[in-house]
Amino acid sequence: MSAAPASRGPSDPVPAYYPGCSLDGLGKAYEVSCQIVLDRLGLSLDRIVDYNCCGATEVKNLSHDVSVALPARNLALARSMGRHEVVAACNGCVYSLTRANDAVGDGATRARINSHLSAGGSPTYDGEASVQHVLEYIRNRAGLDRIRGAVRRPLRGLKVAPYYGCLYTRPKRYTGVGRVPGTDDPEHPVFLDELLEACGAEVIHDYPAKTICCGGGHALSDLDVSVAFSASVMHEARRAGANVVATICPLGQINIENNLDRIRQAYGEEAILPVSYFTQLMAVALGASVRQARLKDNFSRPDLFLRERGFS
Amino acid sequence: MPIVEPSLVTVKREEKLELDGIDVSGDWNTFLEPRVHTDLDLKIVDWVRSQPQGETISRCWQCGTCTAGCCMHTDYGLEEFNPRYFIYLAQIGYEEELRKYAQTIWRCVSCNKCVERCPKGVKVEEVVHTIGTYLEVSGGAPESPADRFDRAYTENLLARGVLDEAALFRTYERLEGRKTPARDLLRLGFTMLLSGRLHTGPFAHRTRGWRRMRPVLTKILEEEERARRARVEAPASRARGGSPGRAP
Ligand code: SF4
Ligand code: SF4
């Protein structure tokens, strides 16, 4: 069993980008706004075309080897594009991709997984791709100074609760976060706080629900839990004085918004706040319109919220 | 929940401290009987360790850090959800007690706070799931809603290489014997439409070359499942002396 690597390894001018099912489907607003932010900051990513689903946290409960082979196939594709760096925007994807890296750190496991991959007609994986969240990529590659300089419309009047959710940093033995230099703090992350602040928003640093679970993995199988957790994401934000929640994970965003009616029923209208992908807010700050950032896609209607505050 | 069961604690009372037939000794002199485990039933822990997801179980030294921060225990407030205790019961092989939690263990939401914090590098979340799987394959525990979802999810993604979320929702709700609220489905369909990329229906996106990958992965899935069941039916290993936390 290997520990998380002590460094991210070689870096690419243009890293590979793993969209995963969510960004390509339900989380389209996330992908589109991500693209705007990257463009405006002069960053680019190269999409892995024939990717497959990473298996999230579900497949591993049924089969170890399938749960490693699925993400390993994607990492192998990135390696065959000649890349050492893979950027993903979904916490669940970051989890399963880094978990696969941990597993193939063991030589015997790597050989076994590679034999599965070859049998299925996929390139084999050498274990040499490092994985990071797009939040970390934007923060480190652009740097806060460049972001401050690129802001066209500071997010004045926004009091943002930065919601990171579970698997952005956790567990560090897989993600390397907190062990690798230049990464975030695994228990009390701050990168999202920094980015939003650079965009001129007021950020609630001591937001208590920062890294709680949204219950998304059990969104259908344990409804009570997923409603309770997604309600506390918004409720704690409001109690801390926020007027909008920023998310970094499509599973969290979709789970919270899909529970809106149930939360309203259980906890009343006061429990509801607009919820937005952080890249949607950043895109607006960098000059994109509310429409371009697809804020109307979100059921909690952050578009109305922003328009009320003079953003078009 | 205390680490040691009440039945292992002996309360010694001073019989002389009795006034008018009323015991006034108090429980101040409560002793733990010193004990050495010699007759552990290693069947469960051996099985859990034989699974790649459960390998790290024997590192656990029962500090309780996992339970202290556990989302389900502390945030949701489900007191009987206690990963430290599940591991303990598995380690000493107290199957009867463990079975009482068969309807609780599956509720782990995989937040990985426990894995993050465990000072011994136990992959607690995967170990907890593996203990749940043991209860299921060794008979007795019915399939849980989370297991049904994992299965529906896996079959869904194996079909084309990527998820078809709408189909997954429908399949799962059917498995649970529920009808998906029309409003939820409508919303989903609406979002899919907005997303501009069809993930459902006959023309949906699929991973190129998946036709070859699919049978390979399906076969592994079946083989691992068979091996899990075969192992649990194999005769259990003999008990050893020493404490349950001893590394392999
Ligand atoms: S699994 Fe880890 S955190 Fe939990 S009791 Fe054991 S050693 Fe402590
Ligand atoms: S992963 Fe499961 S056991 Fe671990 S802290 Fe989260 S809910 Fe508790």
Structure described in brief:
By secondary structure, chain A is α/β, with parallel strands linked by helices. Chain A has 14 helices and 8 strands. A 4-stranded parallel sheet of chain A has the order 2-1-3-4. Chain A has a 4-stranded parallel sheet with strand order 6-5-7-8, with helices on both faces.
Pick out its properties:
A: Rossmann fold, 2 domains, 4-stranded parallel beta sheet, globular, B: 248 residues, two-stranded antiparallel sheet, 12 helices, binds iron/sulfur cluster
Mean pLDDT of chain B comes to 82
| Alpha-beta classification of chain B | mainly alpha
**Structure classification of chain A:** alpha/beta
| SSE ordering of chain A | EHHEHEHHEHHEHHEHEHHEHH
The largest β sheet of chain B comes out as:
2 strands, antiparallel
**How helical, in percent, are the residues of chain B?**
40-55%
Secondary structure tally, helices of chain A: 14
CATH class of the largest domain in chain A: Alpha Beta
Small ligands present:
iron/sulfur cluster
- CATH architectural category of the largest domain in chain A: 3-Layer(aba) Sandwich
> Uncertain runs of chain A with pLDDT below 50, 5 residues or more?
none
- Overall structural domain count of chain B: 2
Which regions of chain B are unreliable across 5 or more consecutive residues at pLDDT < 50? 238-248
Structure description:
The complex is a heterodimer of chains A (312) and B (248). Chain A is of the alpha/beta class. Chain A folds into 2 domains: 16-133, Glutathione S-transferase Yfyf (Class Pi), Chain A, domain 2, CATH 1.20.1050; 153-308, Rossmann fold. Chain A is built from 14 helices and 8 strands. In chain A, helix 3 crosses helix 5 (107-119), helix 10 (223-239) crosses helix 11 (250-258) and helix 10 packs across helix 12. The model of chain A has no long low-confidence stretch (mean pLDDT 94). Chain B contains 12 helices and 4 strands. Chain B folds into 2 domains: 43-142, no CATH class; 145-229, no CATH class. Chain B has 248 residues and is mostly helical. Chain B has helices at residues 43-50, 65-69, 71-75, 83-92, 95-99, 102-105, 113-117, 124-137, 145-160, 165-175, 182-195, 210-233; strands at 9-11, 18-19, 22-23, 30-32. The chains are: A alpha/beta (312), B mainly alpha (248). The interface between A and B is large, with 60 and 65 residues.
